[in-house]
Amino acid sequence: MNIKESVEARKVKITGDQAWDMLRRADEIIAAKSSTYTVLHPAADGREQVLNHCLGRTGTLRAPVLKVNNRYLVGFNRNMYDACLG
């Protein structure tokens, strides 16, 4: 896997508006919360629903975030990674 960019989440906080600007053009977002994950489509699901799943308690984007082509994987869940990355 070729990593083009890496950002330290403890130093760079991505909040609601910034997160939406980043995620809104994605074809698909797969967001993990605890032991489950949800598949979202920003064009259909809208800003509020996407951010509800992608922001943590502090109002910042959950970590880690991986962008694979035009799909974002947000948060960590082993089953999500296995299903999406093989």
Share of helical residues: 25-40%
Count of DSSP H/I helices: 3
Gap between N and C termini: 12 Å
What's the pLDDT, averaged over the residues?
A: 92
User: Uncertain regions: pLDDT < 50 for 5+ in a row?
Assistant: none
Strand order, sheet with most strands: 2-1-4-3
Q: Give the CA-based shape.
A: globular
SS content category: alpha+beta
What is the number of E strands? Answer: 4
| Sheet having the most strands | 4 strands, mixed
Counted up, domains total: 1
As a whole number of angstroms, the C-alpha radius of gyration is 12 Å
Please provide the ordered H/E string of secondary-structure elements.
HEEHEEH
Task: Kindly estimate the percentage of residues that lie in beta strands according to DSSP.
Answer: 15-25%
Keyphrases for this structure?
86 residues; alpha+beta; 3 helices; 34% helix
Summarize the structure.
Helices cover 34% and strands 22% of the residues. The chain has 86 residues and is an alpha+beta fold.
Describe the structure.
The structure is a single chain. The chain has one domain (16-85). The protein contains three helices and four strands, in the order αββαββα. It has helices spanning 16-23, 42-54, 78-85, and strands at 28-33, 36-40, 65-68, 71-74. Strands 2-1-4-3 form a four-stranded mixed β-sheet, with helices on both faces. It starts with 15 loop residues before the first helix and ends with a helix. The relative contact order is 0.22. The model has no long low-confidence stretch (mean pLDDT 92).
